[in-house]
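FAQ: What does a ligand-bound record look like?

Like this one, built around pyridoxal-5'-phosphate:
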Amino acid sequence: MPQVYFDYASTTPIDLKVLGEMRPYLKKEFGNPSSVHSCGQRVAKALQEARKTIAEFLNCQPAEVFFTGSATEADNLAVLGLIRAFESKKKPHIIISAIEHHAILEPCRFLEKEGVELSILPVDKNGIILLSELKKLIKSNTLLVSVIYANNEIGTIQPIAQISKIIKEKEQELKTKIYFHTDAVQAANYLDCSVKNLAVDMLTLSAHKIYGPKGVGSLYIKKGTPIQPLIFGGGQEQGLRSGTENIAGIVGMAAAIKEAGSPKAKIYTVKVRQLRDKLIREIPRIIPAVELNGSLEKRLPNNVNFSFAGIEGEALLIALDQKGFAVSTGSACSSHNLESSHVLLALGIPEERTHSSLRITLGKDTAAKEIEKFLKVLPKVVERLREISGYKIK
Ligand code: PLP
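The answer part, i.e. the structure of the complex:
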């Protein structure tokens, strides 16, 4: 049975155009960009071009784009690299939203154990951060604020430019410098990522969420932002990320970014949004006792996340897999972890409901007939699982 893929927030299939651009760098143009001979220099030029493409997408200078081995690494570099570069007797203070990806949350928890002060910025019941709380949390030793642009589980979009404005006002009031990072991994396909418009100091991207290859990420670092490397060696990426560059991957990331910023992408966004809206409209109509998690309006156009009362999300995922649908209960990283999602808990969702959530994320290849098929299968699967669990609709 062909699998219907509804897990684009976890990863995306590589675009054929992207693959075509990568191919020469896997075999024919295999040189090391650090080599002086022409074989290496041709590859160095491709690296330079890729950096320029990412810089154009982000509206920054090419020298402000740093390639990494993943978005996880880029997030870690932003947090750990900034803290390591901090030179003061004062204990640094970090503020992160309550719905950050683990790639931000875990390095921050690690730093907290080492004595760094960490504050968690709460969100409202729709998953949008509370700007009034941010104003209260910023202090004279606040060094970093990190807020995810669009959440990977519930797709909620944060007001990054407004957050930046608050930070700037606080900087003036407290006469201090506060750096602002955003993880734009899920946003890059659908939202404006101009670092000038967002007014951020650092921004993370990942290639495999935008129809590019796995194992490539990038971090925008505004000129003048103090960062210490996490990996030492040959001094690549201006000394911030040693290791021979993954050229084919980087070329692929640039090709994927070009596609994401193209007019074609706007067309498929309209289609994806229509299909997503159909799911959001129809699921509660045909299945009783379901609740949408996260804001309806401030939401990525490809994200659906519902809780189905009386059912374990894991059981629903497995049953749907057997019927030929690939869905998720939340983030890919935590899908082997049966703890409640920290994202859903942050919205004030009761623990029981957090265990019954299902994430359906669409992409440019999603077809209307796949949605139709899913809407026929889902009610039957839910009904059967509710019978097994003995759940009675109130
Ligand atoms: N940040 C967000 C918001 C994500 O969704 C992911 C992937 O799940 C990551 C970071 C990590 O990306 P990567 O797989 O490139 O390490």
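Follow-up question: can I read anything off the structure? Yes, for example: The mean pLDDT is 96.
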